[in-house]
Amino acid sequence: MKIGNTTKLVEWITSIQKRNFLLVLLLIAFLLRALFIFVHEDFILLNEMGGYVYGAENFLEGKGLLFSHERDYRALLPPMYSIFLALIFSVFGKNFVIVRLIQALIGALTVLMSYSLGKKMGNEKIARFAAIIMVFYPQNIVFSDLILTEILFLFLFTGSFLILFTSLEKKSYVLASLAGILFGLSSLTRSISFFFLFFLCGISLVSKKLKPNLKYIILTTLFMCITIVPWTIRNYNVKNAFILINSKTAIDFYMYNHSDFYHILKNRPNIEDEKRMDATGTDEIAIYRNATKLTFEWIKKHPFLFLFKGVRMMWNFGSLERTFFTHLKGNYYGEISTFFKIFITPYIIIPFILFMPLIILGFIFIPKTNVPVLISINLIYYMMILGFIANIFYRQRYPLLPFFAVFGAYGLLHMKDIIPDFLTPLKKYSWEAKSCILLIGFFAFGWVLDILLSISTIIQHIFK
Can you give the C-alpha Rg of the chain in angstroms? Predict the structure, then answer.
């Protein structure tokens, strides 16, 4: 057999093996998420879940996106998730099992996207380990079951980056434009992503490695804005006020920028102070403007509390996964057995304690010559800055999970190369080793704080 034919045969066999590997991962990912969904048949819509569902129902009835049955809130939440629900309801009726199963499928597809992300940021081995992490990571499974934006957002957000990276690689204006549209749709699902491209444009202006890609990033940013503008115009027409995406952003900004030291430490807004936000009544725009005004007043009067709040949010950035326990506390899952709660608790808590050090190792030690890696690192910086200024919890951190999986996979696979940096005398540690120790120590302190502040609540709700 000729060498050329042999090479083609090897490539064909390799492609089949890769395809089979990804299909197996896709199947396992979907089955795990579906199994968790069927563990509990009934659930209670908590917090903004009801708003998204109510918005979908009103949309189908031709009333537009109205997010509250008590108040005229038409710009409170971003629109895409309610539209997503409305599409499912229009075909299957108001069937939340179908909604969650579709989310399980989308969550499983995100595993494949994480594989592609790993390929662009690293290599085949990193891609495979990143995909495996995404299959089994508990927060991924938990969010597929919740009537919240996270799964849809993660799919759109990760897809945006994959197309952006491909556009930069192929120098394609068409793909850069498509990436912008997807970034726009992801921002209309969760507005937390909107300012990232502007941040990236600023970084690209001063970065020698990113500057050659600036025109593509600007084009992506332009198409993101074009995608969002119709919704902003709609907000102005129905509320006679400029609201870029949703009014809840101002309320969230206020929630964690108005409390005293004790409430900041406990991660609990001061409920008494929140009454000031509603002082002007229940009008959506009045609350939006009042929240913004009170937030800046508080920051101006309490700069040191604002800085402490920022540090507290950085502990939250690396905090233990509590999504399941938060919704368990709210009785979202209804009646599930104590045995199941005891079984799932270590599965929810332990992986992140093992995962976060690997993420930090990968984040610090991964070569910074790859453009997708540089952009991903700046995404994490962006989220940390946003969290410091406003707030960040495990929910807001969730969009970073595919990127964390890649960094974690790199840290795991390159452990043999990394460990020698920590075996020298402390004074001779590289800056990378010192940075890792500092970050792991900082987040470990946050974990201890989290456990001390939450353990009584967790135990109470497991055994109630």
Answer: 23
Mean pLDDT check: name the lowest of 209-218, 236-245, 330-339, 355-364: 330-339
Are 127 and 162 in contact by the 8 Å Cβ rule? The answer is: no
Residue with tokens 């119709």: 230
6 in a domain, yes or no?
Answer: no
Q: How confident is the model at residue 16 (pLDDT cuts 50, 70, 90)?
A: low
Terminal C-alpha separation, the chain:
70
Smallest CA-to-CA distance from 111 within 125, 132, 139 is with 132
Q: Which residues contact 346 (CB under 8 A, 6 or more apart)?
A: none
pLDDT at 366: 95
Q: Return the closest-CA partner of residue 325 out of 385, 395, 251.
A: 395
Q: Is residue 9 part of a domain?
A: no
Residue at 188 is within a domain: yes
The answer to which of 134-138, 182-186, 302-306, 422-426 has the lowest mean pLDDT is: 422-426
pLDDT at residue 333, as a whole number: 83
> Which alpha helices (DSSP H) does 173-247 contain, by range?
173-187, 196-206, 214-239
What's the domain count of the chain? 1
Q: What is the pTM of this model?
A: 0.91
Token pair 């332009």 is at which residue? 222
Domain assignment present for 397: yes
What are 285's two structure tokens? Answer: 């725009």
Q: Which H or E element spans position 451?
A: helix 431-463
DSSP SS3 for 247: coil
Max CA pair span of the chain: 83
| Range(s) of the domain holding residue 217 | 18-463
DSSP 278: T
Quick one: tokens of 212?
Answer: 């050659």
Q: Three-state SS string across 351-405, please?
A: HHHHHHHHHHHHHHHCCCCCHHHHHHHHHHHHHHHHHHHCCCCHHHHHHHHHHHH
Amino acid at 7: T
Q: Which residues of 179-205 are buried (b: 16+ CB within 10 A; e: fewer)?
A: bbbbbbbbbbbbbbbbebbebbeebbe
Closest to 250 in 3D by CA, of 201, 282, 286: 286
Query: Helices 303-317 and 371-389 meet at what angle, rounded to 10?
Result: 130
